[in-house]
Amino acid sequence: MKHSAFLINVARGKLVQEKPLHEALTTGRLKGYAADVWFRYDFGRTYPRGDVPRLQIQKLPNVIGSIDQAANADDVLERYIHWGAENLAE
Fold it and tell me: Which residues belong to any copy of the D-isomer specific 2-hydroxyacid dehydrogenase NAD-binding domain (predicted)?
């Protein structure tokens, strides 16, 4: 992979391993990372969501992230309702 490459993940947080990603970003093997999804950990009751990266990747200057909002596009809710109604009708 070229050192000028950017990795973009809008699929699932678990598709990317956090430690190798952090290493690639901090050593310059990867120019940047953008994500709409994050890593999931089970912290139990103290922090039930547990989606903050352990290595603080979101704080690196070559990382851009959002909070898992890809499903909030304008027409997604309308399509979900339509599909749900179709499934109930069957």
Answer: 1-41
Q: How many domains does the chain have?
A: 1
For residue 65, what are the domain limits? 6-89
Tokens 């598709």: give the residue.
15
The tokens 């009708």 sit on which residue? 89
State how far the Cα of 20 lies from the Cα of 25, in Å rounded to an integer.
Answer: 9
First to last CA, the chain: 48
pTM of the predicted model, to two decimals? Answer: 0.65
| Residue 1 forms part of a structural domain | no
User: Amino acid identity, residue 13?
Assistant: G
Tell me the per-residue pLDDT of 13-53, one tens digit each, with 9 for 90 and over. 888 998 999 999 999 999 999 998 877 655 556 555 555 56
CA distance 49 to 74: 25
What's the CATH code of the domain at 49?
3.40.50.720
pLDDT at 20 (0 to 100): 94
